Amino acid sequence: MELDEQKLHALLGKVVVEMGAAANGPLITIGDKLGLYKSLSELGPMSAAQLAKATETAERYVREWLAAQAASGYVEYDNVNDTFFMTPEQTAAFGDKNSPVFMTGAFYAITSLYHDEPKMVEAFKSGEGISWGNHNKCLYCGTEKFFSPSYEGNLISSWIPSLSGVEEKLKRGAKVADIGCGHAASTIIMAKAFPNSTFIGVDFHDKSIEHAKLKAKASGVNNISFQVSTAKELPGDGYDLITFFDCLHDMGDPVGACAHVKNALKPDGSCMIVEPFAHNTLKDNLNPVGRAFYAFSTQLCVPCSINQEVGLALGAQAGEKRLKDAIMSGGFSRFRRATETPFNLILEARP
Predict the structure, then answer these.
(1) How many CB atoms lie within 10 A of CB 138?
(2) CB atoms inside a 10 Å sphere around CB 308
(3) In this predicted model, what pLDDT tens digit does every residue of 298-312 receive, in sequence order?
């Protein structure tokens, strides 16, 4: 076959962009850990020497790091004054940990993918799964850092208010379970916002529950308890609200999980399912958001599900239709899309 030079150059150009993105990943976590983004966003414009002094780092490394960030479009360079600064948009993405679009957490999680590449090679050969707890530890803090800003920015202000009558119940005092709570970012946010309600966070990963307990204690909330448990073993009943944050698609048996949850709810209770945004067809997910989620799904979500009983492996781009099928098969009679963001679907199911 004869090569089309134009198409080849376009493809190679894309590959060069990918090389730059992959190589810059560690520089993003370095910039976050050392406070380089934070200091530049708060104190800039600054020279490399000034930023190095402000962060107590080595100027030569900082100068090269700044060049890489400027070439990436993550910071701006003033050629006249030889200084660097960050726009409000760049600050929102990299410099302000309280921003709802703070993105550095994703790169901590991506670090784990490279560490675990040998495990994925074997999984591709054998077809076997990989337990969530069998990944590099960078995954767990990265997942928390990536999801937390979105939860902080949306959960109380728009997601819970989008559910039918739930906000009023939580204000009065409700019984809530947060399934797949991980490091408890979502659980703690809800517990702080609704002190009259009681919360239990459950996760099948014991190390995450240990960390969640420490986070809750440090945050000063006292209306949360935690337990190592799968969704199908959620203790108790009579819940007003049960939540799944970015985890239903990771479960081996999401139908069984929903069946247990449905029976654990009060007759007028609600289930909130937060899932990665996806359309219902592959062709409609072939975009930058779908690309990122398919990559995470291949290496994290699908192996996690396959490692469990049933192993349905919905994947992070299951889409609303497949999620609805699983949820309704679990016995729920009512289902709707409550709201959405560019990165999430917020679904409500009721008995």
Answers:
(1) 19
(2) 18
(3) 999 999 999 999 999
